[in-house]
Amino acid sequence: MNESPLSRLSGAYLAALRIHCMQGSQASSQAAHEIGREAIAIGLETLDLARIHHHALAQLQGPNSNPRRRTDLTARAAAFFTEAITLIEETHSAAQETAADLTQLHAELAERTRDLAKAKDELERRIAARSTAETTLRKSQKTSDQLLKDSQVLEKQLQDLTHQLLSATECEQQEMSRQLNNEIAQTLLGLHMRILALKNEASANHANITQEIAATKRLVTDAKKSTSRLTNEISKRHPR
Fold it and tell me: Which of 17, 29, 149, 212 is least surrounded, with the fewest CB atoms within 10 Å of its CB?
């Protein structure tokens, strides 16, 4: 019948321990290391080897040995056992270091994962902010273009009304002057409201929009001046 690895190791341990206790030679030290390697190979731990040692020591001491001999054998056997478990303890130490390295690696990986998640959130936030800014810019650009068109229409209307006033009779001039003031006032009010809305929508760092707003303001100012000039000319030419 084939022996199990544990039985073979127990027999080898007893034989090597007997030689060590009798001779204490260098060869027995090497044998102890070999026992340790075999114990590691079959997956034994320090406690398992301690049981094998205790059983082998009991066989060497015998039931009728005197206390002095038992003490001497115990001391000699302890040195052998220490040699035998050296490799097992070293393996445990290496395993502990490896486990510590793995723990640190997992911690670093977790930290990097958190950093990547934060970077992803920040990138998404910036993309969303940029998209909102682009939408606002397009909307503001459209509003500004419309303001410029309205100002140009107003300027053309002023020119046409000026010609009509100059060629009309006094009563017609007075009526047209009144209508002109009302129409211009309403148009200017509408332009001011749209400029205010545009300023609220546009971002302060968009230079093109700022320039267009300024241009629209100048057109409105010109329209006011034209209205005042026209009213003064009518009043001078046709006093009441």
Answer: 149
